[in-house]
Each structure stands twice: as structure tokens, then as C-alpha cells.
Amino acid sequence: RDLVQRYASVLDRFGDDIGRRPMVLPNGKFFPDAFTGDLPSVGRLLRRMQEHAGMADIPIQIGVVDPDEAEACGSGGCGSCAAPNVSPQMAAARLMDLGDGWRINLSPGEVHHPVSLTAALARALGHIFLLEETSAERPIDEPLEVTVELTTVALGLGTLLLAGSYVYQKS
User: CA-CA distances (angstroms) from residue 135 to 1, 55, 155?
Assistant: First the structure.
């Protein structure tokens, strides 16, 4: 019940700014670009997701946190190349306000795991939308993580969050 009320609150508060968004699916219709796991591919993916979410007018860059982490293991046997566990420090450093735009910081593990990557980008776009649309008079409802995810769903990116909610790896 609380979740439905919170979602209704998000739609009531931001519905005009969100508009009618399509339900974005992780398929070739929504993502026709080739993806090779490099930063230009991630940038194209981000732009495509921004378009689907109606956020193409917001300048957003991609950054990589601790690029040396990518060299930690090449086989994947250690787990470092598989779906990452995002630390609280990484979550806090995810977004950087550049004044005239934003930078989304990703870990190397996320860049190489497409499901984790799209879920992380979707969540970051929902967070950016909230930060762009709220003010001191109307702050973001707590808990922040819930409001971010519900906003991401309203932006049409909910299926990408759903896919990223169940990522596991074998050791």
C-alpha cells in the first residue's frame, strides 16, 4: 500500500515533467546500437536511455571510478569481472553535479556487465531527474532510494531496474 501511494505521489508531483514514457525493454527496438563495452559504447547507451526517459536536454557525462580495478582479474574467476557489488562509497560517488550538467561515475565491473550497467544508468537517470526537478521548498521524499527507483519506473526504465535486481555470479 505504501509503495502504491508513493508511486502515485511521484506521478502527481512530476507527471507533467515526466510525460508519457514508453516502457523501455532491453531489446534491439529500444537499443539498436552496437555495444562493445568501451566508454564510447557506454556513452551511446546513456544517450539512448536519456532519449527514452525524456531527458536528452540534460548534459550528462560518463566517468569511471578506479579504472585500475579493471586490471585486478582478467579471467572472471575471482568475481571482479562479473556483476559488481556497489559499495556505499561508490553509491555516494555515483553522481557529480558539474554545475551545468552531471557526471555518472561507474565502476569498471559495471561497464563490462550489461545488465548491471543498464540498471545503474537507469537508477542514476531517475536520481538526476529528481535532483533537477526538486527544490528546497519541495525536497525529495525519504527514503531517497525508494523515490529514486519509483521515479525511474515512471520514466519508463523500470524493466531495466527489474533485470538488474537479480544478478548473481558463481565463484
Answer: 27, 18, 19
